[in-house]
Amino acid sequence: MSTIAFTLMFAVWLMFGILGVPIQAELGLTDVELSWISAFAVLNGSIWRLPAGILTDRIGGRKVTLAMLFVVAVPAYLVSLADNYGMLLFLAFLVGFAGNLFSVGTAWNAAWFGRERQGLALGVFGAGNVGASVTKFIGPPLIAATSGATFFLGIQGGWRLVPVIYAVLLVLVGIATWIVVPRQDLTPGSSKSIREMLQPLRHVRVWRFSLYYVAVFGAYVALSAWLPKYYVDNFDVTLAVAGLLTATFIFPASLLRPVGGWMADRWGARRVMYLTFGLMLLTSGILMMPNGHIVISHADGSTSEHLAYHLPLWAFAVLVFLLGCAMGFGKAAVFKHIPEYFPDNVGSVGGLVGMLGGLGGFFLPPLFAYTKQWSGFPTSTFFVIFIVTAVCGIWMHLTVVRMLGALSPDLAGAIELPIEEAA
């Protein structure tokens, strides 16, 4: 039930990825203005993750989940009534509160499962990220089929119908959760003060995990909202096709999360993170290259063209799919670290990591828009992701090297084995 609730809330949180295209056409918004609608939703879905995680540890995940489902239903319905940019920004911010359910569900599930199964359990819950693809599937055909229609109680068709449907589903899932989920709430943090629960946040390790999560989750959120428009603008496809192509990124980035959790349980989280960052650097490194060729000017004044480069739609989609696979593994691996290092403070640590990862999803869409505006290259989107991933990978590797150096000080700083050992 926590996974079902999270899937729905995630769909609501990121619904502007698809709704943004018809909204932009109706209200005459620029790309930068449109990017801020998704960014505001992501912002409010991130800033409360730390207190939500702490609250879950103190009073239980069932209570917090129920409250969030019913609260978010109200602004979700009101989105259907928005008729100007300012009102839409405000309601997008309120709807974004749905994103905070992640830290609630993380603490809730961690409390119910032993350490040997937490990677898989948290991976299954985190697969609710697939909710980001729900609007990509139902949105375009629903918008096209109901555009211009008016329904019961004056509800309008087109893009305005989607948030109404979500509002109804939030109430129904809230009722189902209240009926189905065990009344007993596990509260591992009920006997601790807020000060005690915040103590682990003093560790640099927590902030390093947070940066990893910016790369694997913040970039995932940003791309989920950004890709439909990217496909429409750069490959001249319809919104429905763009939604389906975006789903080929969202599905592996979500549904492979349990696999990533299992891999982290079996082989260790750091090995999975090396795989994640390596694959992300490879795919984003290719995707960031703009179409074109190199022109060489010769001494006699003539020119010649070499190394013509063009990435067709199918190749772009395959690379984005692989990027999603890497993010799916990585999201689970990051959260495998948390109950291992901080078993008694999963709510606060997971809340901070989730909050900062989500804030990455807030900053990245406007950054995509501004770098495109500055460089003129749509592919600058993937250059941003490449840089973030490179910073994370370098920091992690330096940490591993320092850790191994501390365990084997006689080999610290050596790049060759001693002659007797090599022999």
TrEMBL record:
It comes from Tessaracoccus rhinocerotis. Gene3D superfamilies: MFS general substrate transporter like domains. Pfam families: MFS_1. It is a multi-pass membrane protein. Keywords: Membrane, Nitrate assimilation, Transmembrane, Transmembrane helix. The lineage of its organism: Bacteria, Bacillati, Actinomycetota, Actinomycetes, Propionibacteriales. The chain crosses the membrane at residues 36-52, 64-82, 88-108, 120-139, 159-181, 206-227, 239-260, 272-291, 311-334, 346-368, 380-398. One of its GO terms (cellular component) is plasma membrane. Residues 1-404 form the Major facilitator superfamily (MFS) profile domain. It is found in: Cell membrane. It comes from the Bacteria. PANTHER family: HIGH-AFFINITY NITRATE TRANSPORTER 2.3 (PTHR23515). GO terms for biological process: nitrate assimilation. One of its GO terms (molecular function) is nitrate transmembrane transporter activity. This is NarK/NasA family nitrate transporter. The keyword Membrane applies. Belongs to the major facilitator superfamily. Nitrate/nitrite porter (TC 2.A.1.8) family. The keyword Membrane applies.
